[in-house]
Fold:
Amino acid sequence: MTHLLGLPPEASAQGVKVDSLIGWVHWLMLLLFIGWGTFYVISLIRFRRSRHAKADYTGVKSHTSSYLEIGVAAFEAILLIGFSIPFWAKSVVALPNEKDAVVVRVVAEQFLWNVHYPGPDGIFGRADVKLIDSESNPLGMDHTDPNGKDDIITINQLHLPVDKPVIIYLSSKDVVHSFSLPVMRVKQDVIPGMSIPVTFTPTVVGNYEIACAQLCGLGHYRMRGYLIIQTAEDFAAWLAEQEAALNPPS
Structure:
């Protein structure tokens, strides 16, 4: 279905269900296109002027069109109630247990993605908007907070392990952005003043793009990040490198 619809490669556990839903919607659109196109052609032929020189104000009394409209409405209800709502409840609203997942904060700003890992202690350090400095402290981290001593911050680089659930808490420092990971079938608006979670489970190792799917200013075109999915061993090694950089040997 992915290749048939021209979708990007699918690299998350949730992607199969998303693609399936997209496929069903396209089948419905195809049926509607064929149905209404056929109806249009039949109407042109059946009610052409040469056959009906004088208008008939009584019209067609058949209820076929009503039955077709009921069928379309039923199909849409099945898509919504049978597929979309259960998928949303299970894969979007119900977050995995944070103890079993990789938890990351991603803070958007014009025109980059700040990525914040909690470090080995698993606790995010305190941040204060009054401490933000675009050069030395883009997230306003309180360096006196012991929970933040081991926190890792990168720019436009999101490293994650394969085959492990991920929870990303999205927020924005300025305007509305949109966090888009096409291969993971994730797209979520990032709203100032809100922390919005998204979850997915990567299934394929590789390097992918993080795009901003919402026009956010003149530099929107260059708001591009990189998603690096690694094996568990490589991800642990990368974390160790980042931790070592925080505490260089004296």
In short: Helices lie at 2-5, 15-46, 64-93, 232-246. The mean pLDDT is 88. The first strand starts at residue 102 and ends at 109. The two ends are 56 Å apart (CA to CA).
